[in-house]
Amino acid sequence: MELELLIQKFQNKEVSAFEKLYAMYSENIYGVINTIIRNPERAQEICQDVFVKIWEKSESYNSSKGRFFTWLLNIARNAAIDEVRSKSHKQQKKNLSTEYFVGILEGSEDLEGKMDTIGLKNLLINLKEKCVQIISLLYFQGFTQKEAAEELDIPIGTVKTRNRSCISQIRENMNI
Amino acid sequence: MDVKKYIASGILELYVAGILSEEQNLEIHGYAQKYPEIKAEIEAIEASILVISEKSSPGLAKNSFKKVKSRVGKVVSIQTKEIKTTPWTSYLGWAASIIFAVGLIWMYLENDKLKSEIEITSGEKQTLEEQILDIRGEVTDKNNILNQLRDKNVTVVSLGGQTISPTSFAKAYWNKEQQKVFIDAQGLPEPPPGFTYQVWSLKLNPLTPTSVGLLDDFMNNENRVFELPNANETEAFGITLEPEGGSKSPTLEQLYTLGAITT
Prior knowledge:
The complex is a heterodimer.
Chain A: H1 2-11, H2 15-37, H3 40-56, H4 68-86, H5 90-106, H6 109-114, H7 120-124, H8 129-140, H9 145-152, H10 156-174
Helix pairs in contact in A: 1-2, 2-3, 2-4, 3-4, 5-8, 8-10, 9-10
Chain B: H1 3-8, H2 11-17, H3 22-34, H4 36-55, H5 64-150, E1 154-161, E2 170-175, E3 180-184, E4 195-203, E5 208-214, E6 225-229, E7 236-243, E8 255-260
Antiparallel strand pairs in B: 1-2, 1-8, 2-3, 3-6, 4-5, 4-7, 7-8
């Protein structure tokens, strides 16, 4: 309810509401963009662009179309993919970014200290590489079920169930 | 509907990923409002993705919102500037087009005026040309008359005023060979309506009057010079005022002028 109110105020162009939403989601958006383009400085600029864009187009969001974060995620992904395409590294990046994401998650011991009490390591307990791949494709890169199935060379029905079990694992780890 | 089975299908995870169709999104939005378990599940899935994506961030600077805010501010101020400038230029455009339109109308009216002035002037010109022609005609007429009067065979007779009108006078230019007489009636008063002057050729011994003709259309003859045929052996000319159409014999009480030929 509080989120809905915040979004409403944001759509009424209240800067304070915008700032709260930015505080809630900016790190996530930055993370998603950087995972796709793999350039932290450029990713920061694109992240700014994305938030400026959602402010300008705030009226185009409608809760019946999906979650606010999902809307934001879509805009961020499209902006990052546009960037990748503009560099014409599209094909290469698609293949590599899963590895990159895995790398970020696995090699982030130094991040652990900076972050909150739920360490990344805890989240990754029992999280197989297959999970990291599917989460990366579906959430970070916006692959459709069919595209993810082709990418991972698994039946389309498996995408949905595998993803479900992976998310469930993360949720379990969060509660540790 | 089996809510647990629906949740277990994994569709809600895809919903949060934003990779479902619009119809599916709408459907799940409806279910989320209808079934609290579905709403809670969606929020839990979202929370896990938020954690994962947050962990993937290299870390934004603490005051990173400032940059976004300044850009948003700029955008807003640019927009207001644009709003201020747009009417300006459009007013200018309107003003220019109004001035242009007024100028165009003025030019049209002016052109029209000039056209009608040209028409009037050319009408006047035509009138003047006609007048010139008329005058030329008159001059020719007068020259003709003059030439006729100057003819060496012409006998000039002065007709003096009589009792009824002592101040009246007239002249007769009689060309005996051509058997015609010009009466210069400049010195006669305007005949009253219904009356006309009649010219008589007189033989004196005995006094025998013969009608030479009428000075018809007296007022419209500007020269007041009338050409009449005269084959008589005239000894004197007389002019009387007679009822319109003339009389067989002169009314002597109305004898205006009379003059005898001196040889």
